[in-house]
């Protein structure tokens, strides 16, 4: 399947979560077995080209794609969690949202020193979560210089925020607007 074939599997839901937003819903993509498999294969190819030694994914949809790519490549998967979900001492980072703040956590013992970690998530919009994940992983000693996404919403500038941190960004597809 081509990237255009996969793009056709993404459902657009207007006015969710609020009026004026076009929500790009990946559940229709992952519900299509061939489409999901092709997505994982394309991401795995890019992760291999980035010389990934581990894959990190942010809760929750980053777990779907990141864990599948890690399994496909027989690499460790590093879950970037919401607060209070890990039963061990964690590293954490607070980051700004449109209205307020949030926190991400990681188990630092799961990350090798200078281990090349590729971040994978379903979508890059404003880049707040991905930027926080890069900073968090780097604080744990990881080398993070690639981030892969299924969808980019380029008008929201998130990919450029990551590039400003010297992270190469790639997405299988993009959608204009937000």
From TrEMBL:
Its main location: cytoplasm. It catalyses: AMP + diphosphate = 5-phospho-alpha-D-ribose 1-diphosphate + adenine. Gene3D superfamilies: 3.40.50.2020. Its EC number is 2.4.2.7. GO terms for molecular function: adenine binding; adenine phosphoribosyltransferase activity; AMP binding. It comes from the Bacteria. Pathway: Purine metabolism; AMP biosynthesis via salvage pathway; AMP from adenine: step 1/1. GO terms for cellular component: cytoplasm. SUPFAM superfamilies: PRTase-like (SSF53271). One of its GO terms (biological process) is adenine salvage. Keywords: Cytoplasm, Glycosyltransferase, Purine salvage, Transferase. Residues 54-143 form the Phosphoribosyltransferase domain. It is an enzyme of class 2 (transferase). PANTHER family: ADENINE PHOSPHORIBOSYLTRANSFERASE. Homodimer. NCBIfam families: apt, PRK02304.1-3, PRK02304.1-5. Belongs to the purine/pyrimidine phosphoribosyltransferase family. Catalyzes a salvage reaction resulting in the formation of AMP, that is energically less costly than de novo synthesis. This is Adenine phosphoribosyltransferase. The gene is apt.
């Amino acid at each position: 399947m081509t990237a255009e074939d996969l793009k056709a599997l993404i459902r657009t839901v207007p006015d969710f979560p609020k009026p004026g937003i076009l929500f790009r819903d990946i559940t229709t993509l992952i519900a299509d077995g061939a489409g999901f498999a092709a997505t994982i294969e394309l991401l795995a190819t890019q992760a291999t080209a980035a010389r990934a030694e581990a894959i990190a994914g942010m809760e929750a949809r980053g777990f779907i794609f990141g864990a599948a790519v890690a399994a496909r490549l027989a690499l460790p998967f590093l879950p970037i969690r919401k607060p209070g979900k890990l039963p061990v001492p964690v590293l954490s980072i607070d980051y700004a949202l449109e209205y307020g703040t949030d926190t991400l956590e990681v188990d630092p013992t799961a990350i090798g020193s200078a281990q090349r970690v590729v971040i994978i998530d379903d979508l890059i919009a404003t880049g707040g979560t991905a930027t926080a994940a890069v900073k968090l992983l780097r604080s744990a000693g990881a080398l993070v210089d690639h981030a892969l996404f299924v969808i980019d919403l380029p008008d929201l500038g998130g990919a450029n925020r990551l590039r400003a941190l010297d992270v190469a960004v790639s997405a299988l597809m993009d959608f204009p607007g937000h």
